[in-house]
Amino acid sequence: MAKFHLHFFCLALLLAICAALPAQAQIQFDRPKSDPPLDNPYTMSIPREKILESVREVLKTCSVQLDEALSKPNEGKLVTKPIIFTKGVTTKTDLEYLATFPAVDVRNWVQGRYTLEIAALPLDQKRSQLAVTAIIQGRISDPLTPNKWIDGQSNGRLEDEALRGLAGKILGVDMSLKTTRPTRRIFNCEY
Questions:
Q1: What are phi and psi of 136, to 5 degrees?
Q2: DSSP string computed for the chain
Q3: Residue 178 domain boundaries
Q4: How far is residue 40's CA from residue 104's CA, in Å, rounded to a whole number?
Q5: Domain assignment present for 5
Q6: pTM exceeds 0.85 for this model
Q7: What is the number of structural domains in the chain?
Q8: pLDDT at 20
Q9: Is residue 7 part of a domain?
Q10: Residue 15 resides in a domain
Q11: Taking the C-alpha atoms of 168, 172, 178 and 183 in order, what is their torsion angle to the nearest 10 degrees?
Q12: Burial of 180 (0-12, 13-18, 19+ CB in 10 A)
């Protein structure tokens, strides 16, 4: 009887091992490596004027308006007008994806917007640096101050996306994060 149980146990063990082999091919023990963020500012072997020209072209293609009062093109600084990127139910999640907000302001978020400051800094005659800074704000629903925007601390995701899109357009290479999308995009705009 003990011999029968031993054979039965060995047979069950063999079947379990055979069933586990195909299952192991489905289990992924390590996540695919994500691309590290680009250096901000990003150094390129291109003159500052060409960088500013390409940035203006991308912003125009993507219908992003420049704030002419705050922009200083002679100094290599371009500032966009605020861009509302989220409204409604997903506002809190979208804001938390891009920035950290003060804990005291855990309220009902209504909208989210960002402003980009893009600077082209010359290093020498042939090299320049492209720097992107994002100011991310969330609007709360407050009956006392209905139009109150609260600043958040950016985590760098938006800056990296903008920097990858702009640098990729300027250099003529695809620097976007590897996703399922086959096209090059920046700010949900294909260029």
A1: -105, 130
A2: -HHHHHHHHHHHHHHHHHHHHHHHHH---SPPPPPPPPPSSEEESS-HHHHHHHHHHHHHHTTPPB-TTT-BGGGTEEEBPPEEEEEGGGHHHHHHHHEE--GGG-S-EEEEEEEEEEEEEE-SSS-EEEEEEEEEEEEE--SSSTT-EEEEEE-SHHHHHHHHHHHHHHHTS--S---S--S-EETTEE-
A3: 42-190
A4: 30
A5: no
A6: no
A7: 1
A8: 60
A9: no
A10: no
A11: 110
A12: exposed
- The answer to whether 101 and 137 are in contact (CB under 8 A) is no
Low-confidence stretches of the chain (pLDDT < 50) are 180, 182
Check if the beta carbon of residue 78 is closer than 8 Å to that of residue 118.
yes
Name the amino acid, one letter, at 65. Answer: Q
Q: 22 vs 5, 10, 14, 16, 26, CA distance in Å?
A: 27, 20, 14, 11, 7
Domain membership flag for residue 93: yes
- Which amino acid makes up residue 156? G
Q: End-to-end CA distance of the chain, in Å?
A: 75
* CATH assignment at residue 55: 3.30.310.80
In this predicted structure, what is the pLDDT of residue 133? 94
State how far the Cα of 80 lies from the Cα of 155, in Å rounded to an integer.
19
